[in-house]
Amino acid sequence: MDRKILTPEGLEKLKEELEHLKNIKRREVTERIKTAKAFGDLSENAEYQEAKDEQAFVEGRIIELDNITKTAVVADKKDIDIVQVGSHVKVEKEDGVFEFTVVGSTEADPANGKISVESPLGNAFIGKSKNDELEVNLPIGVVKYKILDIS
Length: 151
Fold this sequence. Notes:
alpha/beta, Helix Hairpins, 5-stranded mixed sheet, 41% helix
């Protein structure tokens, strides 16, 4: 089984999603199925089929989240002087300064500054220190970075 690396915040977020799916979404979908059944012939009942499809998705996601939350490795930021999962990193590159947090792949959200440790960018910074300069081979080409701060 593939164990996911998560920040404590990421694990909490997944647990909240799991509880929402189990306690709220599951009931909502069950109600939709009951309502759709009342329309009669299930073989041509689009509402029923959509509700059953949603039920399958919800149940699959519950199983997935349950497995992740039970087996996840929670990142423990013991050494704040080096970049690791959970580190907030401020870097400088040719076109300016930007910040991101290195997270496990399950938490990745590049649009919101959460870069996966498994991505080329996230992986390149792991183990680096403040003031380190590095070149990262990205799909857009080689990009030079300097680490300004780690927290």
